[in-house]
Structures
1.
Amino acid sequence: MTDSSSTSTGSLTVISGPTAVGKGTVVQRLRAEHPELVVSISATTRPARPGERHGHDYWFVTDDEFDQLIASDGLLEWASVHGSARYGTPRRPVQDATSEGRTVLLEIDLQGARQVRQALPNAQFIFLTPPSWEELVRRLTDRDTETPEQQARRLETARVELADAQEFDHVVVNGQIEETVTELVGLLGLCTHST
Ligand code: 5GP
């Protein structure tokens, strides 16, 4: 365990976890309740899902644009996730926000988390885990956004990722969302609201 996420220039926290564990929902809640938190917007080559907005959920880019981001060293980390699309963290906004003393959160996969650890070992690393394997399978099948083949591939990745949770500074079980958010607010060092 390390408690060295804070630097004189703000702090950077990485949150990872298997597919369907609820990272998106948790991060949405943190974002809504703590507008002072800077949540990094990733670039991705996957198409937008209904309701997703360019520049809010992701920067949706072409393969060529993604190649250019890599070539210009514009990404802090990047990875091909679930054997399909590429995802990466634009470097500049993270640098700017941390140098302004802000608290920055990256929601990325395990391969990306490892790259950030190499580049920025003082960052804080949190792994979000489900209460059980059965619950993870249920969450993935209930949300019904992937084909059965895609679900099977995501679960394959999830098994490997769960086995690597001990690489992280903190493991947070995402059972009740309220409790998860409270725990993360504490780990991120965000001020709790009095109301
Ligand atoms: P989804 O397609 O469901 O939005 O995201 C799929 C996976 O990509 C999630 O596990 C998410 O954590 C990961 N991901 C999203 N943005 C990034 C990123 O910038 N870098 C990396 N390495 N993974 C990302």
2.
Amino acid sequence: MGARIRGTGSFLPERRVTNDELAASVDTSDEWIVQRTGIRERHLLGEDELPSDMGKAAAERALEAGRLTGADIDLLIAATNFPDMICPGSAPFIAEGLGLGNTPFFDLTGGCTGFVYSIAVADGLIRAGSFERVLVIGLEALSRVTDWNDRKTCVLFGDGAGAAILEPGDEGEGVLSSALFADPEKTLLLHMPAGGTRLPPSGETIGEGEHFLKMEGSGVFKSAAPMMERATLAALEKAGLGLEDVDWIVPHQANLRIIRSLTRRLGFPSDRVIVNLDRVANTSTASIPIALDEAIRSGRIGPGDVVVMTAFGAGVTYGSVVIRI
Ligand code: UT7
């Protein structure tokens, strides 16, 4: 018996920044950003807001949608790459804010695939009977690790959080399959050099800008669509389904050209793909749960629909989950 979604929620910070506003401080233009990425604006965390505040807000909306309270949650998984504190992460702050008491929690670092990885983990734990109700949150505040003078990265990212509550489903509903992959040979395509135990913070690392996210954009770009294609076909095969059975694909929202390349490769209709990156940009591990929540709330995705969530990201990691809503 797989895990079904009981409720979803999402949160975007109030501050909205358009491409034109960015172009006022770095050498870029609305035209370049729209043509190369599809992004028009993004939401950024305010100075007095925390990543865990976003996670908590998204979780509260998911609880409300599922007509549940914090007392109904048995496990919290916070998927994030840049937590409130490297130790002890973001999950404890979210748990405290939600009043989860002694409910266990952990952060999961899986690049932008973190939410997909977390859904697969939660599904496994629910299938095993270890937990009844799991709150999975994808939250990311990339603005806090972005070099705002680097036009190759700063135009791409936004902040946000999305959440889903999973619980045991009936036969044939909920998570039908998942297929997770990784490629450690591509690890340095996307990384933050300093701040961990490999290269602890020092005056030198700060001076060299090594606490910012570094990305080899074209390397990521070339790998992204083939990786999501492979994971999607593998997950569908495990579920005993074909692409013709899929109602919606909810892909990681990194670049519209990557999403179009994926749908071309799969031969899947692009109007059955959820895209919101024009408004929210790339929110890393939050991108899929935000897009999913928006699509469910607007009624585009409805009960019984077969949905593929697919992502790629730092690590590199990639993977897909097939779920019947
Ligand atoms: O969650 C996963 C994280 N990352 C991604 O998914 C990113 C994947 N990669 C991409 O989306 C694309 O590679 C980018 C959007 C980052 C770049 O697009 P591209 O079509 O691969 O451009 P490029 O890197 O080949 O750069 C083309 C030109 C360069 O100028 P020259 O060398 O041809 O003169 C860049 O310097 O565009 C220039 N450029 C810009 N120009 C204006 C790069 N960034 C910008 C910018 N504004 N923001």
